[in-house]
Every structure is written in C-alpha cells, then in structure tokens.
Design brief:
By secondary structure, the protein is an alpha/beta fold. The chain contains 8 helices and 7 strands; from the N terminus they run βαβαβαβαβαβαααβ. The mean pLDDT is 97.
C-alpha cells in the first residue's frame, strides 16, 4: 500500500486539503494539485511535517485548461511514476435566480465542475491504463447532482452532468479494472463555499443570516450538516480493494436528505 499514489485536484484548501491529509495518513503518496499553487505547496508541506516523510508534493493546475491538465499529468508521472487514485475535488458555485443568471457564471460552473473533471479523468486514466493499474477515479459531487437547486442552476446542471460522465467513464474503463464513482455530498455547512452563499440564502429565504444554517440542518433526517470526515470515510472505502465491484455509482453522503 505504501507506494500507492493519489492525485487530489482542488487539494490546496478546505475539503480537498482534508482529504489529502487523510489519504497520506492511510499511506498514500499524495500529489496535491490546485489552481492556487501556493496553497498546494502549503498543504503538501503540512502533510510532510505531520507524517515526517516526503509523502506529498504540490502542483499548480488550472483544471479548465487542457494544456495545464496535460502538464499536471506529466509532472505527477515524473515525480511519482504512477497513479492509483484520482480525486476530483475542484468546485465552484455562484447563485442567482435564473432570470438574472449571467452566462459567464453558468459557463464558469460547467468549466470547473464538469469539464475539469473530464480533462483530469482522461489524462490520469491514460497513466493507469498504460501501467495496467486497476485504479480508482472518484469525483466529489453534490446532492445538487441528483436534485435541482434553487438559484443554483449552473452548479446543479454541471453536477448532474458529472453523474452522466461518471457512468460513461465507468463503462469506458471497466475492461481495465478501473472504477469510477461520484460522492454526492450533503451541505458542508462549515465550508467556505457554503458560508459564502449564506447572505444570498438569507435573502432568498427572507431570514437573518444567523438562522440560515439551522434551516439547512432541519432538512436533514440525521439533523446535522455533512462533515469533512464523513466524506473521507466514504472516499477511503471506494478507493479500497473492498469496493472493487462498485463502479459508475453516485453515492449519497447526505444524512438521509437524498435517498436515491
């Protein structure tokens, strides 16, 4: 296990950085890739400090740019020589009612949430196929990829697209023993992305900002938000040998909020 290599795109901060650290604790060597190269280097340095060895390395990538993703794959290959797991954790959300939703915001959401996933999956699948590695590709998705999201059409449309892409990649790569799955997260209430949307949600709901989180907690049968650890727990299973018979799935981590 000690020589397995994980690539986490969007690994420089928040959930992505947490997943990088969790994978390193499980013995993976981790390529931390992020649009913010400084954050990627910082996350890698923290992992190396914690583990006491050179377990991680930072890389800058613009997942929406084909040449940038190709260069990332080459750089990771040069640094580590193999890839066993790709985690696509890059994501953006910009909220607005459909009648005033800017095209540039819609296109940006599709580029980061969907096109970037496609490009990274394509390039890292090539390395897995080349080396005969029965690897894992895991997309960090959202419950908004299964149910529509009010004032979030760009995000939800891209996340629904991710489900179709995951199923198609799973079929493409099944002969190589590479599995592809999406993790459908509930609301990460403490994440910067959710926190940044609170003023818009407060306006949408007509309530004070400090009441927004509770509204979202009340929608969840298990009565709490989704934690980073919840995501890591499920990720580690689907990255493992125990999940070798599961592919093309969209796995809910929603506290019962979405059940199909």
């Amino acid at each position: 296990m000690s020589n397995k290599v994980a690539v986490v795109v969007g690994g420089g901060q928040t959930l992505g950085a947490f997943l990088c650290a969790g994978l390193a604790q499980q013995g993976y060597l981790v390529a931390v890739a992020d649009l913010n190269g400084e954050n990627a280097d910082k996350t890698a340095a923290q992992i190396n400090q914690t583990t006491g060895k050179e377990a991680a390395k930072g890389f800058r990538v613009d997942a929406t740019d084909e040449e940038s993703v190709i260069r990332l794959a080459q750089a990771v290959d040069a640094a580590f020589g193999r890839v066993d797991l790709l985690v696509y954790s890059a994501g953006v959300a910009k909220a607005a009612p459909i009648t005033s939703f800017p095209l540039k915001d819609f296109e940006f959401s599709v580029a980061v949430n969907l096109t970037g996933y496609f490009l990274c999956a394509r390039e890292f699948a090539k390395l897995m196929v080349r080396d005969g590695i029965k690897g894992r590709i895991i997309q960090i998705n959202s419950k908004s990829g299964k149910v529509g999201s009010k004032h979030n059409c760009g995000y939800s449309a891209a996340k629904f697209g991710g489900v179709g892409l995951t199923q198609s990649l799973a079929l493409d790569l099944a002969d190589n023993g590479i599995t592809v799955n999406s993790l459908m997260l509930g609301n990460l209430l403490k994440s910067p992305m959710f926190q940044s949307l609170i003023p818009q949600y407060a306006k949408k709901l007509g309530i004070p900002e400090n009441e927004v989180e509770q509204v979202y907690i009340d929608k969840v049968p298990l009565k709490r938000g989704c934690d980073y650890q919840d995501v890591l727990n499920v990720l580690l299973f689907y990255a493992s040998e125990q999940a070798s018979y599961c592919t093309g799935q969209s796995i809910n981590i929603t506290g019962g909020q979405v059940m199909f």
